[in-house]
Amino acid sequence: MPDVKRSRSIPRGKREVRKLPSSRKKWLRLGAVAHARSGDKGNSANIAVFADTASGYDFLRRELTAERVAGFLCGIGATRIERYEVPNLEALNFVLHHALGGGGSRSLRIDAQGKALGQALLELELPVPDNGPDQSWFFGSEVTHG
Question: Which phi and psi angles does 70 have, rounded to 5°?
Fold first, then answer.
């Protein structure tokens, strides 16, 4: 069984994403350093984000928070988002409660099973520290300056 560590969950009313100054900030698209799978379990969606490298996993643990995911996916109506760490797979798993409009057989949404949510999340841009430790894990990745 995978080694899983649960992070705190974020209730619906706390979806603010911390505003970062755009000057001299570097941004990295999540899909440049990770891949994702998503699906449903009833009315909840599940998104697993797998880092491409061990140091990339450390970066994701620090920057890919439940708050950031909630802010990015706020339009889908999830009531709560929980983040679980799965270190032996270098992955983070997000459970989005009540995110599917009633679930696969009830929802009128085009993506009633949440299969596209993982791909959508890979478009999230994360801040890259200017003076962080070894950043070779994103060598060749799409880093933009804001």
Answer: -60, -40
* pLDDT tens, the chain, 146 aa long: 455 555 554 444 433 333 455 555 788 899 999 999 988 777 788 999 999 999 999 999 999 999 999 999 887 777 889 999 999 999 999 998 877 765 565 554 555 456 788 998 999 999 987 654 445 555 444 455 55
Query: Cα separation of 18 and 1, whole Å?
Result: 35
CA nearest neighbour of 66 among 137, 121, 115, 133:
121
Phi first, then psi, for residue 84 (nearest 5°) are -120, 135
Contact indicator for 80, 9 with CB cutoff of 8 Å = yes
Query: Which amino acid is located at 99 in the chain?
Result: A
